[in-house]
Amino acid sequence: MTKDVLAAIDIADLLFNIADSRCKKSYEQLFVHVAPRLLNFSRKQLRDESMALEVVQETMLKVWLKAHLYNSSKGAAMTWIYSVARNAKFDLLRRTKHHQDWVQGDDLWPILSEERDTDKLPKEFEPIVKQELQELIEELPPAQAAVVRMICLQGLTHQEASEALGVPIGTVKSRLRLALQKMKEALDE
Where is the RNA polymerase sigma-70 region domain (predicted)? Predict the structure, then answer.
């Protein structure tokens, strides 16, 4: 048996273990084996490192959640995983196309920026806005709130926040994106 055939059998077995018993060890082995391949695939397709990382993260999340949908009679395990990655890529591209009004931290914290414009909020409103922002941050899930505090309030880069939290940079970006979207929706209400 060649190494590729053995790897395909192992990947299928790992998928079945994930689907049957939510085996985290199997998922970890699958992740270690598959994520680098997916990253190379995504880099070639997108030519954007952050989007490629996000595709890998979304793909691996969907593999965890939808492993029960894999059917070995319809194709190889890696083929199924690449299909999930392709769909994740299309979803990401559609999202970015429709979300041209991407929420930036500067949009939410105009008074906290270092260069203050004279046409921004008067000084007497600063404590009110700061209080409201703190309340919005406190309503977020703890992982998202930590990322918002680090990046938007403390001024850390995505990489620095990733290292401080011990999570992949794609996770930091996803948490920030979700948190800012939740905060924007709360402000719109």
Answer: 30-97
